Amino acid sequence: MKNTFLFFTVFILCVGQSYAQKEKITGNWLITKVEVKNKVITPYQVMNYNKDGKMITMGIEVGAWEYHKKNHSIVTKSEFDKDFNGENKILKLSDTELIVLKDDAKVYYNKIDLNQVSKENANSGLIGSWRLNNEENPDTIHLLTFTSPDNFLLITKDYGMQSKSKGTWLFNKKDKTVILIGFSMEHFKGLNKVIHISENRISLENKSVTYAFIKEENQANTIEHLVFSQDDFFNENGGFKYEEEEKNLPWNDWSAMKPDILNVKQLVYTHSSLIPDTTSFENKTLTANVEVNMDEEAYYIDNIFIGFDSYNVPEDTEFPINSFDDYNKLYPLEEATFRIQGEETITTAAGSFNCTVVEAIKDDVRQKLWMINDKLGVYAKIIEENPDEHFGYYDRYELQEIIYNN
Predict the structure, then answer these.
(1) How far is it, in rounded angstroms, from Cα 267 to Cα 311?
(2) Residue 199: φ, ψ to 5°
(3) For residues 85 and 80, what is the distance between their CA atoms, to the nearest angstrom?
(4) Which pLDDT belongs to residue 299?
(5) Residues 6+ positions from 62 with CB-CB distance below 8 Å
(6) Sign of the CA dihedral running 387, 393, 399, 403
(7) Separation in Å, CA 177 to CA 149, 174, 190, 258
(8) Cα(379)–Cα(355) distance, rounded to whole angstroms?
(9) Which pLDDT score is estimated for 107?
């Protein structure tokens, strides 16, 4: 009887110890360092040893784990990545630190509390969108957005190409660091020392290089999405509903408007292109050349509403030239199905203008146009939106300056 009692006592103690060890392992761990022979790697990856025996990283289940008391080790299995398979001999295990030996690699973990991470992130001063101050390569945009509780999005845009990285961020007020954890990241991945934080600027040091960011204004309230479609322009029988509106367009009398346009040399616009997955814009200046031929009574203007002008294309590029005539009603834009919405006075950097407001559509591309009533071919503002899921875009053009001949 006494031996039986002793057996059960030892059994319960062993089970209890095993359970206690498993409880210590269960939770979220930050992999801070891996030592392999003479090399040191800092992967900064979060691994969740789930209480149900699952291994989860970046929201993805990558395998299973179990604690083996006899060898004091964590045995892991994975079909996702064979590198996870095998025995992780525990060298140290506490409430905050775990060190294991996996094959020839010594792996260091720090326990993290996601609730505490959320609190530190919320009070970090980093939440919002930040644009890299990239003076050496201004054509490349890096836009880093921190959201609560712990997600980030990094958009990199360069010469019509765009990449996107997302993941988890961990701010440490005591150490003055922020760790970015994500897949396929080329910039700012891993440990970043926080050199400076203010309302409008932050500086991060990553791998001995310092990066300065400027706070990006949330421009969501400036985005006017165009929600009309082709169906809105035609009746049930397929007939065009706005046939009579053409006569109400402002640019019908060339002779009356000719004197006002004679001395115009150039039209300068700001072209703002919405960066996908953000409320921020990529901005550049476009200049349209204007030419008036009195002998032919012709008026030529560069169509810059295609996203570029003759000043930022290769020299051998032949920029399209078109001229105003009775068949080109939305000149210098290409022909489109349109309807008139009314009149509106709007103000841009170039001044205040009374405009005829037009909605137009070509295929699935929608446009809203502010045609200046007394300036032939001059738009105060244009919004163009393509809602396509894969190739969509949102562009805005605003008149900045009218340059006259001396």
Answers:
(1) 13
(2) -60, -35
(3) 10
(4) 76
(5) 55, 56, 78, 80, 81, 84
(6) negative
(7) 17, 8, 10, 63
(8) 8
(9) 96
Is the CA virtual torsion 303, 306, 312, 315 positive or negative?
Answer: negative
Amino acid type, 124: S
Q: How many CA atoms lie within 13 A of 208 on its CB side?
A: 0
Give the residue carrying structure tokens 């002779």: 255
**Which pair of tokens denotes residue 68?**
């083996």
Residue closest to 221 by CA, chosen among 281, 283, 162, 164:
281
Question: So what's the pLDDT on residue 322?
Answer: 65
In this predicted structure, the answer to whether residue 256 has a pLDDT above a threshold of 90 is: no
CATH class of 115-215: mainly beta
Helices (H), 33-143: 114-122
**Residue 334 per-residue DSSP state:** P
Contacts of 133 (CB under 8 A, 6+ apart): 212, 213, 214
Per CATH, 23-112 and 222-404 having the same topology is answered: no
Please provide the DSSP assignment of 191-254 as one string: EEEEEEE-SSEEEEEETTEEEEEEEPP--GGG-------GGGGB-TTS-BTTGGGGGG-S---H
Protein fold of 23-112: Lipocalin (2.40.128)
Query: Domain spanning 222-404 has what CATH number?
Result: 2.50.20
Task: Judge whether 135 and 148 are in contact, CB under 8 Å.
Answer: no
Strand partners, 73: 68, 89
**What pLDDT shows up at residue 59?**
87
Residue type at position 59? G
Q: Mean pLDDT over residues 330-355, rounded?
A: 93
- Distances in Å between the Cα of 354 and the Cα atoms of 241, 252, 342 are 26, 16, 11
Give the closest residue to 181 by CA, choosing from 167, 163, 165, 164: 167
Q: In the predicted model, is pLDDT for residue 188 greater than 50?
A: yes
State the pLDDT at residue 56: 94
CA distance 309 to 311: 5
Token pair of 244 as six digits: 């009579």
- Domain range summary for the chain, segments of one domain joined by +: 23-112, 115-215, 222-404
Rounded distance between C-alpha atoms, residue 12 and residue 145, angstroms: 51
Residue at 400: amino acid letter: Q
With a cut of 60, say whether residue 302 has pLDDT above it: yes
